[in-house]
Amino acid sequence: MLVEDHRIVRDGVKTILERGAEFRVVGETDSADEAIQLCRRSAPHVVVMDVELPGLNGIDATVEILRHSPETKVVILSMHDTEEFILGALRAGARGFVLKKGSQHDLLDALRAVAQGGTWLSPQVSDKLMVRIQEGNFNPRPVPAPLQALSRRELQVMRLVAEGKTSKEIATLLDLGLQTVRSYRKTMMRKLRLNNVAGLTQLAVSTGLTTLRVEKSAAE
């Protein structure tokens, strides 16, 4: 499955894949939310995922896809090689990270490796990680222990709730339905064993999820 919001890039990747008999494109979309729904229905072997998408980004989409379709493998295809994007993708469960400035052979090699249960990083990405490790500058910034039970999407919602955003505002910011946001809030509170927004805000501040402390609870 191809998830890319630039049609010309998506068409180019599709053309590369369909030249041979190794891979068959079973679905394509420019929306992360639609990709999640498609994966729930078809459970593709591999998803080629862009990072920067309208609404939900590719890293958060990876988390959601793997939650509902754990056998699916995700390969990130991105123009960015920053530590934030690389580590975010790997923490989310992606098995490959291919730079768009690489060659079509890089993409095919990554898909072959990941489809067979392995992993693959563009040489520039692995070099960057190696240099950071060797220089002692590698900072994985793990999720604080109290929040590790939450998905990336739930962490997003938690931060916004703690910063005083209403469910309607969060729905607009994250391009989600209002009932979906309320469901995330309910699940998040249950996982954290919290009963009110004040407690959630205190936890968000104490764990560094947000540095903004609000005086009043967010209205529903």
| The CATH C-level class name of the largest domain | Alpha Beta
- Percent helix, as a range, is 40-55%
Q: What does the average pLDDT come to?
A: 85
Q: How is the CATH topology of the largest domain named?
A: Rossmann fold
Q: In the residues, how many domains can be counted?
A: 2
Morphology call: globular
Instruction: Output the structural class.
Output: alpha/beta
Could you explain how this protein is built, in words?
This protein is of the alpha/beta class and 220 residues long. The chain folds into 2 domains: 2-134, Rossmann fold, CATH 3.40.50.2300; 145-206, Orthogonal Bundle (Arc Repressor Mutant, subunit A), CATH 1.10.10.10. It is 51% helix and 9% strand. The chain has a 6-stranded parallel beta sheet, with helices on both faces. The longest helix is centred in the last third of the chain and has 15 residues, at 178-192.
